[in-house]
What we know:
By secondary structure, the chain is of the alpha+beta class. Helices cover 38% and strands 10% of the residues. It has two domains: 10-88, Arc Repressor Mutant, subunit A; 103-180, no CATH class. The two termini are 35 Å apart.
Amino acid sequence: MPAEKGSYRSIYSSLWDDPDFQSLEPLTQTVFLCLRTFKECNFPCIYVFYPEDVYKRLPKVPKEGIDAAINMLVGQEWIAYERPVLWIIKGFKNEPFRAPNNQKQITGVVAILKSLPKLKIVSDFADYYKITLNKGPKEDQKKIDKKADLCSFTGCGKLSTITIMGRGYCDEPNHRDEAFK
C-alpha cells in the first residue's frame, strides 16, 4: 500500500442506519469516525490516544466541543478511555476482517494488548473478548505446578501464553488449533 494513502480502515456502512449512532450529535459522530479511522487505531481498536490528535484533525472545532463529544461517546459506551488508552468498545467485534477463530489474529491481538500500558481498560478489553493475558515469565514460573498454566496440547508441558475457550496453550500454532476442533 502506498504510504501517501495512509492506513486502511474499514467500517460497516450499516453504522449510518444504527438508531444509536443516528441519535448522536453530528460533531459526536464526526469525532467517533475520527477515532475509528486514526492511523493509530489498530485492528482490535484499542490504542494509545491523546485528545490533541483530534484537535489537530478538526482545527475548526473548539476543543471544548471535541471534549464534550468524547465524553458523550464514553457516557453512551461507544468508547472507553483511561488515559492514555482508548478502546472503541465494539470496534473489534464489528471489524469486517475479524475472524474469531484465526490464530494469527488472536496472537496479534495478544501482542498488541501486551504492548499497551497495564491499565484496567486493557484487562476489560481482554475480559470482553474472553482473551486471557498471562503474567510475564517470572510470574508463570511461580505457577508452573498448576495444570491450568501448562499447554493443553497432549504431551506438550510448556507454559501457556494464551487461554482459548478456558484452556491454556503455548506459542506453538498447531497446539492452539486443537482448541477449534
